[in-house]
Please model this.
Amino acid sequence: MKKIEEVDNKELKEEKKIRENRTYLFFKAFFNNLKSNKLYFLSFVITIFTIVFFSVTKVQEAEGLYSETKKNPNTPATPVVNQNKTEEKVPVNEEVDMSDYIGIYSREVTLSNPLTVSETCEISSYKFVYQIKKDKSITKYLVNDCLGTIKMWSDKAAYVSSGGAKYISANKINYLFSPNNMKEVDGETYPSDSTITTIKENKNKDLDVYFYGDNIVINDKNNLLLIKGNTVSYNLNQVYPSNGGELKQRVYKAGATNQFNFIVFNNNEEVSCYTDGSDDTLVYTIYSIKYNTSTNAFGEAKKILSRNKSDKCDNYEDDVKILEE
Model:
């Protein structure tokens, strides 16, 4: 019995020695190939780098981290935030911590060509400004010397889970923070702005301003303008110039969603209608135009009605009411 045990132990030792020899021979051959075969060495380095790179990337994505090296905040930018996101965002039942991010962040946009709104109002640039307060609210403003300081929206911050990462979110926009920046996910970067200490709303009373995402629509009563990033992409007076009439306002925000109504005079004199007209000379035409949120642009204007001199003033008061509807 003792001899059998001795034989078994001997066989186990020999088998262990064989395994150790195989491991030694494998690593010896592996390191010899690394030293002598450059292609083999390069393949090994690429493999290790790939594994490390994807491991770090996955960790960053999982924690919702943002590196300042991803985007230079000083690079001029045009708003590209997708306002029609369909990605599911799941609220996280956890109290949001905004204590490290309280302050003001801003981004300036310079127009490619200055815009003259009126004799006393010219726009060459404007700022989008974020303010984060202790009450965990995030508020976005438009700031411009001509337009004033206008609140775009305000919302309480909350945590949401999206794409496997947890973000701070407000007004359906997710945010990432680094020490001196605030970034809209899929959007723009807003550096911390120490030049602005307080924000007080102060809107230009002669203008109506509407926001569609970061696109700005301005109605100065006699014109309709659309600013997209650094470009004025629509100017009603250039497309539908008016000459004549005595109305002080020719462009109105309609009751219908995203719709504006306007009138174009063609009589070349300061008269809106005629009491003794007898010919069919065109006096004015009323149109409607809508802002399309899918294309982020104004569509084609639709004609509502037109009046000639022969129509006299019989319908004028009712037509003006149509403008305001």
